Structure formats: structure tokens, C-alpha cells
User: What shape does this take?
Amino acid sequence: MTVRRPSGGAARGTIMSLLEVTDLQVRFPTSDGLVQAVRGLSFTVERGRTLAIVGESGSGKTVSTQAVLGLSPGADISGTALFEGVDLLKLDHEQLRRIRGAQISVIFQDPLTSLHPLYKVGWQIEELIRVHRPDTSRAEARRRAVELLGLVGIPRPDRRVDDYPHQFSGGMRQRAMIAMSLALNPKLIVADEPTTALDATVQAQILELIGRVQAEFDIALILITHDLGVVAGIADEVLVMYAGLVVERAGRRTLYYRPHHPYTKGLLESIPGSSGARNGRLRPISGSPPSLIAIPPGCAFHPRCPYAMPVCAAERPPLSRVTGTASGGTAGDGDHASACWLPHEAVGLGPDAEALRLRAKEA
Assistant: This one.
């Protein structure tokens, strides 16, 4: 089956967003203080396209999607999350339950904890189908489970349908989770670190599979990862998150070749074999992410930033459009935005951009 990526040729304004999240804030009260996990996140996901959300652990990328889907018990959540015009944040548990699995599916990081160890893989897919579509017979649900397991590349699906999760390898378990996510023909799939626990070869196979089924069935995809290298061949648009905020947003090509925010630049220089890694050597980001209970004033990244200026510690930069970066990019790259006080001309990974960043710091 050939992967058919959406062309993206239509003007952005003519495409109705499937999911539109605006000013999402997620806070967790604790005995040590208020954890500000997400601090005003906004994004849209269009039908058939892929949004990647990237950042280190603790940046808020997973919490944001869990909050939207009602999977963050105990959290104080505000903002809006319109899915086909319906605000998911205003739905009760039963209303959300009817949407999760049927219209929005989730592929979790560790399929061994997502699949029940005491039930056969096929039975679990069958139950998902019958819970949402009670008029489906057991035989029909089983035929659908076998069909789905074959679709995602599991050999002899008519036999493997009766195996338990522990009888599958890590890659096969993740394929089974993808099969389950497709069971009810969803409009949106959220893939939360779907390849983290797999070796490099299997990672590539799973990413290729996700891209293939997404294009084949015209499904929107939110891909959550800490590794920019994972999204290189699959994302249409990328959000880079740090300390609960989006620090950069751009189309894939723009983000990889003309990043503006120093945090994005640091992530790119941490990818083995990337153009950002100078002379083949990785350049790790110094320091650690901040505590979400005591977030630094101004730009939260300034304590780790090699280009930090006095204004960075005093004022939080807005997420503003970076001009002049759309040429040579994909559709939507004109929406390149960055939350950084560096001049908009300081983009890219080349020596000219580096010189502009250092000149701005010294000014």
C-alpha cells in the first residue's frame, strides 16, 4: 500500500479544523504548591494532517492531550477544545467516553500496560467494537479484529487473534494497539510516544505504519514525542513545547532548516547525524527543565539559553510570527511563530544565524 500524504494545496483558511484548542491551561494542586503543567496552549489540527508536539519530559505535551480527552483526574482545566464544534472540556464523563475510542483514538507509549494481560488481543479489540456498537455480533467483531490485525502487518492474523499480549513482541503489541485504534474508523488519533520503548528498526516500521494508515484512511494525527528526529518524515506542522508553553510553531521543513528559538535549535543539535550536530558531534542542552511549581520569570528557558539577554529574565516573550521564513517550505510554513526576544532575522542553523544571535546578546 502506497502512502498518500495529503497535498496541503488548499489555502489554510478554507480548511475546517477538526480540533481547535484555545488557551488551554492545566494545573494540579499539590502539597508543595500549584503545578502549572500547561500555561495557555493553542493549536489546531486539520482533517488528514499530522501535528507533532515535541519537547522534553515535563514540557506539558502529554498532559495537554490527556486534559482534552478527560484523562487528567484532579486537574484544574480551563480553555476550550472544540472537536467538530463541540467543546470537549464541557462534556461529562459519559459523553467523553462515547467520543474516546470511536471518534478519537489513543496509542499509548507502552502497549503492554495498555493491553490487559489476562485477555486475548483479539477479544480486547472485539470488546471495543461491541461497547461502542452494541448491535455488532460477536462473529462480526471477530472478523473485524482479524481484518485489522492483518491490516497492520501481523502475520497469520486468524491465529494471532487468539494470542495473549505477552505472546507478542514489543513491535507486534504496538501494531495491535494501532489496529485497536482503527477499529471504529476514528477521525483523530493521538499517538503518545508510540516508539519510545522500541529499537530503532522497529521504530521506523511503526512510524511507517502509522503514516500509511493515516494517509489511507484520511485520519488526523497528533504525534507526541521528545525526539525531533521521529517526526522528520511524518509531521506537517510541529509545536515545540517548553515549561507548559509553545515556544515555536512551524511547518516541518521550516522548523528543521530555519529554527528560530534557541530551545528548538538545541533539540535539533541533539539529533545524531542531523545538520544541527556540528562535525558529527552532539551538542546537549545544558541544565535541566524548570520546576513547574516555581517557573522562572520572563522566558522560562533563559537560565539554560546561551543567547539570554537581560530582557529574557524580565519579560515573557509573546508567540509572534517570524517573517520571511516561508520560502522553500511546505504549506502552512508562513505561520512560523516563535516566543523569543531574538530578532526575527536570527533563524537557521548556519554561521550567519549564529552570528546574529551572538550579536543580539552582546548588544
In short: The two ends are 55 Å apart (CA to CA). The longest strand covers residues 17-30.
